[in-house]
Amino acid sequence: QVQVVESGGGLVQAGGSLRLSCTAPGLTFDRLAMAWFRQAPGKEREGVSCISYNSAATHYTTSAKDRFTVSRDRFKKTLYLQMNALKPEDTAMYYCAAASKYSTCSASWYSEDRYDYWGQGTQVTVSS
User: pLDDT per residue over 12-52, tens digit each?
Assistant: First the structure.
């Protein structure tokens, strides 16, 4: 069974930074579009960012633009999300997702239906 594992969450003050990581050893990492989602208490899960298989294209939700950066290391088979200038409203469980049928993100990258493999999540809490 494919395992997707996130790490790097934690408690940080507003204005601080965190870097999330995601590994998926059982997947053909180089061929898959991958994404970050988050879910805040009482809210639906939302797409945060997507990156194509070759890092040529990235997408962000509006609230993450200019603050978050998604990247991937094909040699380490690791996905990253660098989060800067964090705000209390960024508090959520962050999930890594992989799309086995898609190598690029496309206009519907934020749709959960595109992704087959999900991690258990890593909690990010931003204090004011």
Answer: 999 999 999 999 988 888 899 999 999 999 999 999 999 99
Among the listed residues 59, 34, 58, the one whose alpha carbon sits nearest the alpha carbon of residue 119? 34
Question: In this predicted model, what pLDDT tens digit does every residue of 81-109 receive, in sequence order?
Answer: 999 999 999 999 999 999 999 999 988 99
Q: Exposure string (b/e) for 41-71, b if CB count within 10 Å is 16 or more?
A: eeeebebbbbbbbeeeebbbbeebeeebbbe
List of E strands, the chain:
5-7, 10-13, 18-23, 33-39, 46-51, 58-60, 68-73, 78-83, 92-99, 117-118, 122-127
Place of tokens 């660098």: 82
Look-up of token digits 């496309």 = 106
SS3 at position 115: coil
The answer for residues whose C-beta is within 8 angstroms of residue 3's C-beta and 6 or more apart is: 24, 25, 26
